[in-house]
């Protein structure tokens, strides 16, 4: 490969834009072609990344040393199949799914491509914020050994810490990320709706959010999950848990079911059994 390998990007969403911009800005990979669902999206991605050119179709994309397939999970296999059907020379192809193994790119592997998955363990709220937060991010790699060496070097060059996973462990690994990050906004949204419905003024919610989440995070970082745990389930106050459960179930059945499950997990954590 040349000193600065070329990169094609299929699916310039938040993950694709973030990685491509970091690699481009830090001189690791040279962005070449970008394919999106619309010309406007591809052009916006090129503008954000600061390099590359929009491609009108998959067939119009030039050959590249590496291909990042950053489309939604449900589209990865079909994208790999379509790419494998083109007369592209074998290269390195990787997707960014946290739950799917590298085997999702099997049509390319059958044509001699090196295939892998590379999932950055970061909440990509916006590409702008993710670019600033990326340094120190753990990236889980899985796939061909011949592909992982290059990917690890490229990711380390933009500040990532890499580890490898087995294909069969990816669903649990990704579920952990969902618990750690994706459910937090959901829980906060439920809490704020409960406060509003119980009479707390909407103007008070930003301050409540900042103080309670800030203190909870400080405690979690300092004491770990078990040490930071508070609340009726942690205290073993099952009478209060049941009364709150009934009130929540009357208010919103889904919120009640979540409260029941989380209260059982909290009790297990308090006993050191989680």
Kindly provide the radius of gyration, computed on alpha-carbon positions and rounded to a whole number of angstroms: 22 Å
Q: Counting H and I runs of at least 4 residues, what is the number of helices?
A: 11
Distance between the termini: 47 Å
SSE-based structural type: alpha/beta
Helical residue percent? 40-55%
Strand content: 5-15%
| Unreliable stretches | none
How does the overall form come out from the CA principal axes?
elongated
Number of strands: 8
Q: How would a textbook summarize the main sheet?
A: 8 strands, mixed
Q: Kindly state the mean pLDDT as a whole number? A: 97
Sheet with most strands: strand arrangement: 3-2-1-4-5-6-7-8
Order of helices and strands: EHEHEEHEHEHEHEHHHHH
Short note summarizing the structure:
The protein is an alpha/beta fold. The chain has helices at residues 14-25, 39-49, 73-84, 106-109, 127-133, 145-156, 170-197, 205-228, 232-235, 238-251, 253-270, and strands at residues 6-10, 30-35, 53-54, 66-69, 92-95, 114-120, 138-143, 161-164.
Give an account of the 3D structure.
By secondary structure, the chain is of the alpha/beta class. 53% of the residues lie in helices and 14% in strands. Strands 3-2-1-4-5-6-7-8 form an eight-stranded mixed sheet, sandwiched between helices. Strand 5 (92-95), helix 4 and strand 6 form a beta-alpha-beta unit. The radius of gyration is 22 Å and the shape is elongated.
Set down the secondary structure blueprint.
Layout: E1 6-10, H1 14-25, E2 30-35, H2 39-49, E3 53-54, E4 66-69, H3 73-84, E5 92-95, H4 106-109, E6 114-120, H5 127-133, E7 138-143, H6 145-156, E8 161-164, H7 170-197, H8 205-228, H9 232-235, H10 238-251, H11 253-270
Parallel strand pairs: 1-2, 1-4, 2-3, 4-5, 5-6, 7-8
Antiparallel strand pairs: 6-7
